[in-house]
Specification:
Chain lengths: 115, 112
Amino acid sequence: AQSVTQLGSHVSVSEGALVLLRCNYSSSVPPYLFWYVQYPNQGLQLLLKYTSAATLVKGINGFEAEFKKSETSFHLTKPSAHMSDAAEYFCAVSGSGTNAGKSTFGDGTTLTVKP
Amino acid sequence: DSGVTQTPKHLITATGQRVTLRCSPRSGDLSVYWYQQSLDQGLQFLIQYYNGEERAKGNILERFSAQQFPDLHSELNLSSLELGDSALYFCASSEGRGGGYTFGSGTRLTVV
């Protein structure tokens, strides 16, 4: 079975501050891991993905995430928050076998950016 | 424009009715996934099709069914609708296991 847990359903930061959104995964096989962003009234957009190459993955809009196998984590970070980063963020995992290609999503973290 | 097209964008219908949601995947993607997003349940996987064949099934009710046609577009059929079926329904497509999903903009279904 595969699953992800996003720690903190709401995160609030000031503009210019570090953004840290936490995600822990569970997978019986080496996982593929993803972060998506959803703006109001829109579909989800892929931010970045880990596919067993480099453990530090850079994505769009200045976001990056680090895969840590020992901690089963894939936290999303951005050095300096911008007002336009306010959105909901989802971590997802996909595996193999019956789960091949099918992603399981976390419950989401809503990021608020204060001026 | 993500390349995944969903129609209609909004749908309001009465309880007991039947609706069909349509999805055209991104060009070249063979896999189509359907998800339901609601405030209380989050993003729930419904069903996956790969090149016309059902590949995986999630928390899809028996009142719901889907198919993928030879041109790779997919339809999600929801019948005997209940108030609790009101939600956003997303279609996504992918090129393969590690590629991630490309989502459509969703269909907002309201059952009254």
